[in-house]
Structure prediction request, 183 residues.
Amino acid sequence: MTNEQLVELLQQKTPEELTPAQIELLRGRLAESAELRAALAGGLHIDTYLSAALGQVHISPEQISARSRQHSAAGSSSVLVVLAALVCLPLVLLLGAVLVSALRSAPQQVAVSRPTDAQQDQSEAEPPAPQDDANPTEPDVEPPPEQPKPAATEPAPEVEPPAEPGAPAAPAAPPWQAALDDA
Prediction:
């Protein structure tokens, strides 16, 4: 290869792209050719200038750590907001489903516990059971006077039979039951 071809080779290829044979040829000709030395020196000056211009970073390690703390603090707050939303949304949906279920089943329970007019008529028509005269300790009790039948437009009052002695007490109605009964 001639010196001119070696200079073109230096201008076309980076030092990493040169083969070991080309590098040996450049070393051997470097001592003999001033033109080759000038081409290598020019490439070296360009590399030095570029590394100096692009490699100057005016950031201290303290500034880097301060920036990383700022980014991590800002990132963690948004993560907390997302986590809170992901936890609260299913809880709100679950609470809504429970309330809707309770509101739908509450009128059905009330309707089941109230006797119908036909059931009331049937219970009034049945004669009282004969009493056993063998037990003289019980006093004769007269049945209470018959109360007037409520009008058809009024709902029948809900009357619970008295609890037997020794039986567990009925659970108290929940606080929202009164609002459901009024509706």
The longest helix spans residues 61-113. The CA atoms of residues 11 and 67 lie 42 Å apart.
